[in-house]
Amino acid sequence: MYRKNKKINNTNRDNTASDRCHPLSAVRHPPSIFRSLLSVIRCPSSVVRPLSTVLCPLSSVRRPLSSGFTLIELVMVIVILGLLGVTVAIKWPQGMEQEAAVLEFTRAVRFAQHVAMTRSFESSTRAWGISIQGNKYTIERADSSETVAVPGIIDDPVGSRTYPLLKNVSITAASVYFNGYGEPIDTTTGSPLTATVTFRIGSDSIPVSVCRETGYVLRGAACP
Known about the structure:
The protein is an alpha+beta fold. The protein has five helices and nine strands, in the order αααααβββββββββ. The protein has helices spanning 2-21, 32-40, 45-55, 71-91, 96-118; strands at 128-133, 136-141, 147-148, 163-164, 175-178, 184-185, 197-201, 206-210, 217-219. The N and C termini lie far apart (139 Å).
């Protein structure tokens, strides 16, 4: 009898310990889903970990850390940039300074023509025009009694109103003067010129012409 009671007491003690380990064991007839959970839940912490994996499977997935460029990728980028730089340098248009000088001088000649047409024409000896001295140009009267500043040109530190072309590009020495109609004239007789006046700019001798009679200014040696 004593042994039987001892066995019952031991069984109750085990059940009590089991009840402490399994909080859901108080449910006598749990549904099937709880039975599955009960089969997973255990008191030791090492057994509870799989439950978190089952309930939250994405929490155990480690995201890859973002990484920078590798050394090989950086070297390849540098090589590609170098090749592009060499290609641009080879295909870069040559003579850009001369082209800019041509545009500047064409603008200066047209401005001289504009001054001659907008200011009163007194005589052929005092006609407005443009003259070239030593690769520099000046907008002045034929007798050099008066000069005018060229708008937008800042390369005149001493205020002489004598301007070099961009990058000191060379230009042939010549001059042309206009009457009140914008026609190129002979300053001695006052008659319109019978020949086209052509200036040569740069080492390539790019022509800029002032056409006779009309005074049309263009790039090239042949007037329309």
